[in-house]
Amino acid sequence: MFRRKISKALNTSEAAIIKSNATIIKLIKMRLLCLFTFSLICFYSFGQIPVMQQKEVTQEDKDSLVFTLFNRDKAEYIDGYTELHKFIRENLQYPPKALQKKLETKIAIHFIVAKNGTLSDYKCYEQEYPDAGFKEEAIRIIELTSGRWNPGTYEGQPVRSRESVYIDFKLTDK
């Protein structure tokens, strides 16, 4: 009798475990079905979005594009970067405010080199000493090099490209 009760109890708990496993499997199947249905709906919905027709690129469009480093050969100063930095050192006029306060910094100036080697669209982001005059002097010195650049090329053709030059403002005597 005692054995029968234990056996019956074991069968009941095994049955409960089997029922809970079956429930878990049903839940997993339902979730997979829902995920599949959702994926199918999304796929179908995105497939119905009309694709915009691409506009043919004209020569005028190509002339106005600014090429980045990733899709073209880099523009260069005619005499090379060593001569560019020499020119900058020789012609740099230290800003009076910065000289008075004995400030030093390094400035990045960004600009566009046109197909004919002239420069435009100067951008300089001075964060350290915005009122010391470094930005203005960096732009002035780079403007002096306009017309002395070989343009960047794309597929062998000259193109407008964005370039950057770093200028060190360092005092020789402190």
TrEMBL record:
Q: Which GO terms describe its biological process?
A: transmembrane transport
What positions does the domain TonB C-terminal occupy? Answer: 91-171
Matching Gene3D superfamilies: 3.30.1150.10
**InterPro entries, alphabetically?**
TonB_C (IPR037682)
Q: Which SUPFAM superfamilies match?
A: TolA/TonB C-terminal domain (SSF74653)
Spell out the protein name for this chain.
TonB-like protein
